[in-house]
Design goal:
The protein is α/β, with parallel strands linked by helices. The protein has 16 helices and eleven strands. A hairpin with a 4-residue loop joins strand 10 and strand 11. Bound molecules: NADP nicotinamide-adenine-dinucleotide phosphate. The site of NADP nicotinamide-adenine-dinucleotide phosphate (NAP) has 30 residues, from helix 1, helix 6 and helix 10.
């Protein structure tokens, strides 16, 4: 029996992870949960899984939750410190890191510092602090196992391979809902149209990132840190069927690939059971029902954020932090209907133009750049839109 904690338990990854754990109750027990504002769902999760420690974002919500719990031995904490406490809870063996955005960084780092297995969905942590997280994982002995389907695919392909034999890694992208929409029509797509992803059901931020392809840009940087690859070893192909999650080209001309239906439970389960594989009734891939698999190059006129992400990947220093910060603000403004869809890329572009590039070696420096760029991006939006 392994003890699991889920950070971001009320989100898309979090609820998938808990459904999976419920079907594998003889193998996994939930000891900690951390969520943001959705206390009603969290309360139901607590009643069902009986964790020992839970965290919510606000102090008032924590107070309310504590008063509603029938079991007064469950410890309720709050805020980022609360999520960190849940992440480093001494009974944890596996921590699923699935809070969205840079808010997930401190709790993820807390789990890594405590030396556990971290099943990592929160890609933004690696984007903004990949060197710090890898350094800390090395020091504590923590294992970082990817949950992102593309990175899980690469991880599975590389299980028995030597990293020095890799020529290139290719991440696939569905292309989002507008892959074939005439460019002129993409400009003013509504929030509802952007959130209608053709293949994956995910949280709002990552769904918008999938429509702009920023998600794939962030994933290039994530892959760089997970697998220690050089920028020119990382490529993207559009693959609308979302069946092949990634491909690894080896030095001898062979290309390895990982295929499955687009179901996040598959990579979540692998991160929990690795190196074992378990039959929990997840759907088999029947390729005869797919018929054809297509692959296309990325058109950077349609997806200008891929170019910016590649610049951040190559330049490093503070640019990945700035890219992520500008993106978080621009996506938030789009979801709040303060800017249009095409303005997301414009705003990020403008924000990065005025960014003062510098070294970031500590968590404090990461958060300082994040705060500065977020302020700057809000100012750009307020002045221009
Ligand atoms: N969804 C996918 O299929 C998928 C695939 C690959 C990677 N990912 C990555 O996984 C992460 C989560 O994605 P998601 O789609 O699950 O997002 P989501 O549905 O929006 O869920 C986010 C979770 O984080 C919690 N949260 C947000 N801010 C918080 C804070 N400050 N403190 C504590 N908890 C906070 C939310 O709580 P409340 O809802 O209670 O406020 C929710 O539980 C993202 O980094 C995403 O890029 C997702």
């Amino acid at each position: 029996m392994k003890n699991v904690t889920v950070l971001g338990s009320t989100g898309s990854i979090g609820t998938n992870a808990l459904e999976l754990i419920a079907s594998l109750r003889d193998r996994f027990a939930v000891v900690g949960l951390a969520a943001g504002a959705n206390t009603s769902l969290l309360l139901r999760q607590v009643e069902k899984f009986r964790p020992k420690i839970v965290s919510v974002k606000g102090a008032e919500a924590a107070h309310r939750l504590q008063s509603l719990l029938r079991d007064s031995t469950i410890q309720v904490v709050h805020g980022t410190e609360g999520a960190e406490e849940v992440a480093r809870f001494q009974e944890n063996e596996i921590v699923i890191s699935a809070i969205t955005g840079i808010d997930g960084l401190r709790p993820t780092l807390a789990a890594i510092r405590a030396g556990m297995r971290v099943a990592l969905a929160n890609k933004e942590s690696l984007v903004v602090a990949g060197a710090i997280l890898q350094r800390e994982a090395k020091a504590s002995g923590a294992e970082i196992i990817p949950v992102d389907s593309e990175h899980s695919g690469i991880f599975q392909c590389l299980a028995k391979e030597s990293r020095s034999d890799i020529r290139r890694v290719i991440l696939t992208a569905s292309g989002g809902p507008f892959f074939q929409t005439p460019l002129a029509e993409v400009r003013n797509k509504s929030v509802e149209e952007v959130l209608a992803h053709p293949r994956w059901k995910m949280g709002k931020k990552v769904t918008v990132d999938s429509a702009t392809l920023m998600n794939k840009g962030l994933e290039l940087i994530e892959a760089r840190w997970l697998f220690g690859l050089a920028p020119d070893q990382l490529a993207i192909l559009i693959h609308p069927q979302s069946i092949v999650h990634s491909l690894v080209e080896m030095c001898d001309g062979s290309t390895l690939a990982q295929l499955s239906w687009p179901d996040m439970k598959i990579p979540i389960q692998y991160a929990l059971t690795y190196p074992e594989r378990v039959d929990s009734g997840l759907p088999r891939l029947e390729l005869e029902r797919v018929n054809h698999l297509e692959f296309y190059e990325v058109d950077e006129r349609r997806y200008p954020l891929v170019k910016l992400a590649r610049q951040a990947l190559e330049t490093e220093k503070s640019l990945p932090v700035a890219l992520n910060a500008a993106n978080e603000v621009a996506v938030g403004a789009f979801l709040d209907r303060r800017i249009g869809f095409s303005a997301i890329a414009e705003v990020i572009h403008l924000s990065l133009q005025s960014h003062r590039l510098r070294e970031v070696n500590s968590l404090e420096e990461v958060f300082a750049v994040d705060a500065e760029v977020k302020r700057q991006t809000q100012t750009i939006i307020a002045k221009r839109y």
